[in-house]
């Protein structure tokens, strides 16, 4: 699937949908490409570095702890290198969210195009400071953050990097329409003078398309093989046929935005104007030297004569010659 506006990012959030299967992770990268994404995003978890064994889990972890889950689905250093290279071969940006300093350092070694700061990590300033020193592009997600927390994080990155995107996000799965917060997109632009994006946790297309129309240059949406797959991401993710529709609509929206229209340039509509607009015709016969009155005028298609909106310029003009009913008036008809 080809597309324009490649400076904008449509991110297929793979997250942990692979459920620890390296083969599925590779397949998901290819699926993202086929569905129209120009970037893929993974999550890099190291249990020992990011959580205690007994830390509480969200309700979708019923049969295993997050500690065990992160251990089970983790990839080796060599596998992360392969994932990075596979994405690059497909001309996809490779984006990863690290959840610890160790994960950040490993990603710097194995290969990464953009660091993504997950919503829950925005207050992890030590990790943010570490990542900022790598001088890689960064995307910050703000799903559970206050303005002050966002500001503190941005200050860290703006010291060292110029390529920073701040994403409006609401950390609810799924996110209800009234919690999307599209208004925040313009507020981010005004406050921080940086690129703005949108991480979409809703069910459906409207939120992402609306965000793109409001100026979001980066859209992220979860992608899965099937909603019935196990794990934290699949239930509320898009299946391939849905993601293909989304990508088409997002790229169309970005194309519209990048091609502003001058309403006074009507060159493209010349033939349509002739077909659909009205010209000034005569309703009555007019003898030479007689004045034309409003009662003498009629307004009909086609529109390639004197436009109906110029009728006042015609009234009280004297005819140069005899003019007949249903004649399309021309400037040459008047004295």
Description:
By secondary structure, this protein is an alpha/beta fold. The chain has 2 domains: 9-257, Aldolase class I (TIM Barrel); 267-333, Alpha-Beta Complex (Type Iii Antifreeze Protein Isoform Hplc 12), CATH 3.90.1210. The protein is built from 12 helices and 10 strands. It has helices spanning 22-34, 47-50, 66-73, 77-89, 101-110, 125-132, 147-158, 183-192, 206-213, 240-257, 270-276, 311-314, and strands at 9-15, 39-44, 93-98, 114-117, 138-141, 164-169, 195-200, 218-222, 279-282, 297-300. The strands form 2 sheets. It has an 8-stranded parallel β-barrel, surrounded by 8 helices. Strands 9-10 form a two-stranded antiparallel ribbon. Helix 1 runs parallel beside helix 4, helix 6 (125-132) packs parallel to helix 7 (147-158) and helix 9 (206-213) packs parallel to helix 10 (240-257).
Write a brief structural summary.
The protein is an alpha/beta fold and 335 residues long. 34% of the residues lie in helices and 16% in strands.
Order of helices and strands: EHEHHHEHEHEHEHEHEHHEEH
Name the helicity range: 25-40%
How many structural domains does the protein architecture include?
A: 2
The number of helical runs is 12
Unreliable residue runs: 1-6
Largest β sheet strand count, sense and barrel closure = 8 strands, parallel, barrel
Oligomer: single chain
Strand content: 15-25%
What CATH calls the topology of the largest domain is TIM Barrel
Shape: elongated
What's the arrangement of strands in the largest beta sheet? Answer: 1-2-3-4-5-6-7-8
Residue-averaged pLDDT, rounded?
A: 93
| CATH evolutionary superfamily of the largest domain | Aldolase class I
Number of strands: 10
């Amino acid at each position: 699937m080809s597309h324009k506006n490649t400076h904008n990012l449509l991110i297929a959030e793979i997250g942990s949908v692979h459920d620890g299967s390296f083969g599925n992770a590779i397949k998901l990268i290819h699926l993202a490409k086929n569905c129209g994404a120009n970037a893929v995003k993974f999550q890099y978890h190291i249990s020992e570095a990011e959580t205690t064994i007994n830390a509480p889990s969200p309700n979708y972890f019923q049969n295993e702890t997050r500690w065990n889950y992160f251990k089970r689905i983790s990839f080796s250093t060599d596998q992360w290198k392969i994932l990075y290279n596979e994405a690059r071969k497909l001309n996809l940006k490779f984006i990863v969210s690290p959840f610890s300093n160790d994960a950040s350092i490993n990603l710097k070694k194995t290969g990464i195009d953009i660091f993504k700061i997950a919503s829950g990590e925005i207050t992890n300033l030590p990790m943010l400071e570490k990542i900022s020193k790598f001088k890689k592009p960064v995307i910050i997600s703000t799903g559970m953050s206050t303005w002050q927390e966002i500001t503190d994080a941005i200050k860290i990155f703006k010291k060292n990097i110029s390529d920073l995107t701040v994403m409006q996000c609401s950390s609810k799965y799924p996110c209800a329409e009234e919690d999307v917060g599209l208004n925040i997109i313009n507020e981010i632009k005004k406050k921080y003078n940086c690129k703005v994006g949108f991480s979409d946790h809703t069910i459906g297309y409207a939120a992402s398309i609306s965000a793109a129309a409001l100026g979001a240059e980066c859209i992220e949406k979860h992608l899965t093989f099937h909603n019935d797959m196990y794990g934290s991401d699949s239930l509320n993710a898009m299946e391939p046929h849905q993601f293909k529709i989304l990508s088409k609509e997002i790229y169309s929206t970005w194309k519209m935005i990048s091609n502003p229209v001058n309403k006074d340039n009507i060159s493209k509509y010349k033939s349509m104007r002739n077909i659909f607009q009205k010209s000034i015709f005569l309703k009555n016969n007019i003898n030479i030297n007689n004045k034309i009155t409003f009662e003498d005028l009629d307004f009909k298609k086609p529109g390639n004569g004197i436009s109906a909106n110029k009728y006042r310029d015609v009234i009280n003009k004297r005819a140069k010659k005899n003019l007949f009913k249903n004649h399309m008036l021309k400037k040459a008809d008047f004295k």
